[in-house]
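Posted in: Structural Biology > Protein-Ligand Complexes

Title: Requesting predicted complex, zinc ion in pocket

I'd be grateful if someone could produce the 3D structure tokens for the following input. Sequence and ligand are given below.
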Amino acid sequence: MTALAFSGPRAATGPLVLGIETSCDETGVGLVRGHELLADAVASSVDEHARFGGVVPEVASRAHLEAMVPTVQRALEQAGVRLADVDAIAVTAGPGLAGALLVGVCAAKAYALALDKPLYGVNHLAAHVAVDQLEHGQLPAPAIALLVSGGHSSLLLVPDVATQIRPLGATIDDAAGEAFDKVARVLGLPFPGGPHIDRAAAEGDAAHVPFPRAKYRDGTSDFSFSGLKTAVARWVEAREAAGEPVPVADVAASFQEAVADVLTRKAVDACRAHGVEHLVIGGGVAANSRLRALAQERCDGAGIRLRVPRPGLCTDNGAMVAALGAELHARGVPGSDLNFPADSSLPVTMITTPS
Ligand code: KG4
Ligand code: ZN
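-- Reply #1 --
Done. Output follows.
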């Protein structure tokens, strides 16, 4: 009987953690037990920003205010649990847009006080790494993380996602996602540009334009995407000035190839330099199909094990915050002191705000 009891589907056990994410334009609420994802509700204000070509902080904050309680309700319904069942709460304390962060932080503090449960103020970037545990189980230690989002592009050494993250390098100018968004605008594609470039590139020739590979200070783990973005803009301008049509799919594919080439090369180099066998990729740009394919190809060639969460978990969501909260809770890390602020420039080394 005892043996049979373990042969059925794994029942979710352990503490129930609610995660709240409001660092940019997505109001995300996730529910996680251990490494098991029970709910992932996201309300996006992206359509309200599209006509401005970028996220308008005030608009995002107001949208978070309106979406917060309904999104929490939706997550609870998805998971089939009640608010009173929640054992701990986690919220993005930073980095991100100050006003947007503030909405999530205030809501999370209110829930924590009302429920009398611990609250973890967590780092958005660490959460982008921790979310992979929901798909692929415990992160091997150490791992190298390539974190590529709209606001950040970094290589991190991750001895332990709950307690220790060491930055190895970062972009010196534009983030990879920012470059995708700006190049999309040059090509007349809607905001946010990443998914549109990804789709357009599927029909294009990646070798059409040999855009520069900005290997900023070769041998380091730093990136630079501003020169590439300018090179695309100049190339498009020259075509337009000559009265020639712009081959959007080919330019998108060539640009995407240049980004994926540099990111994967530097990530594999960092793994080799630090003798690390595991690479995890996170953040919105990790949803990019070419980046995922090229990373797999290069990791296979270098004997590195690659972990990338499914695209829906790469872009901002509450599940990633709940995943990191669940890890902290499982380690017995005490909840944060409730006085923590929303910190728009929280460093990646601060995984959780002090208890
Ligand atoms: O992590 P994320 O959702 O938000 C931030 O924390 O910034 O990342 C958003 C970024 C945007 O720049 C968006 O264009 C990019 O991720 N992105 C993509 C793709 N999906 C989202 N970039 C390239 N290819 C994609 N499929
Ligand atoms: Zn993000």
